[in-house]
Amino acid sequence: MTERLYYHDSFLYDFDAEVLEVDVAGSRTALILDRSAFYPTSGGQVFDTGWIRPANGNDPSQKLRVAEVAEREDGTILHLLEDLTTIQTGTRIRGLIDVDRRRDHMQQHSGQHVLSAAFVRLFNLRTVSFHMGAESCSIDLDAKNPTQEQIQAAEALANDIVTDVRPVSIRFVTQEEAQELGLRKLPPVERDKLRLIDIRDFDLTACGGTHVATTGQIGSILLRKIEKVRQGWRVEFVCGKRAVATARRDYTTLAESAGLFSSHLWDVPQQVRKSQEEARTFRKAREQLMEEIASLYASQLLRETPEGGGRRVVVRIFPDRDLAFAKLLAQKLIRLSPDVVALLGTTSGQPALVFAQSPGQPFDMGSLMKEVLARLDGRGGGSKDMAQGGPTKIEAIEVILNELAARLRG
Ligand SMILES: [Zn+2]
Q1: pTM for this predicted structure
Q2: How far is the CA of 367 from the centre of ligand 1 (A)?
Q3: pLDDT in tens, 130-183
Q4: Ligand 1 mean position to 47 CA, how many Å?
């Protein structure tokens, strides 16, 4: 088993060790050391990254990037290097932890302990799982439906504990001793010795992760989205510098939105509601106007279209109207008079065709549509009196519709 240096000191950012084994894992070299301060992914916390270089010498070209750290079942820690290397078994190395990443993980993970304990203290809501993501973290609460008041109360208590600057200490106990102590959480695997994380007079739990030395180092705990999940409710949160970065991003977004409305930040929801209401009103007014325009236009077209073979065949292609308008116009035309056949098209946006005839006219719009689309390389169809389709070749639309109109006029 690799000796885990982070078990005793989370602030140990560099260390000496010996290479015990060199393996290849895919395209990467995997090193096993006799001791390590690198944290491998486990218990919801993600791995450390950093560098490994020979113990003697400062040649930057010999500094190898540790891209991932994983735990093997036998308790050894695998240090996966970004590239293949010629490093030999027995080499003395120096390990360097990526400090920013470690600090961030300590803030998130310690913040999780405080937050989970706050939910238990206030409302007896247990944490059933913890997830640490690149952007935010979450805990799943064994809860029916936490209220906004509960969320805010837990956030407030957690931040009070941060402000208290309470010591966070590590100690090791036996299973029997642990049973007596009333831990918030016992680990799922049986081990001879349990590692306890003790937040003075607030929380005592078994955990193998890296934690801060005082709660003050967590900085702050900000709760965000809550959502229903299978095993309860998921509470998303961010701590420390992440909380500041997240609040900064939220502020920028909100300030930009407020700028668009020329309003104060806090008036944005009200402004959005007002805009939505206006958009609904405009949409209704527009629909009504389109109806009126289509009616007037249909009357005008019928006046202009001469009769031939006992019917009036209207052909129109619109470069600036959409399919909805073409359909509306077709409906108006065939309702206005019993002797109409309308062959309409639009080339604005997605090209479309609409064919319609007044009830009682003898043609089949569906099959005429298929016939035309076969020549225009498109798909569509419809019923006897109304059909619609989407051509892909539009150059010949006008010629083809006029040919068809001439045929229908007899
Ligand atoms: Zn922990």
Answers
A1: 0.78
A2: 71
A3: 999 999 999 999 988 899 999 999 999 999 999 999 999 999 998 888 888 878
A4: 13
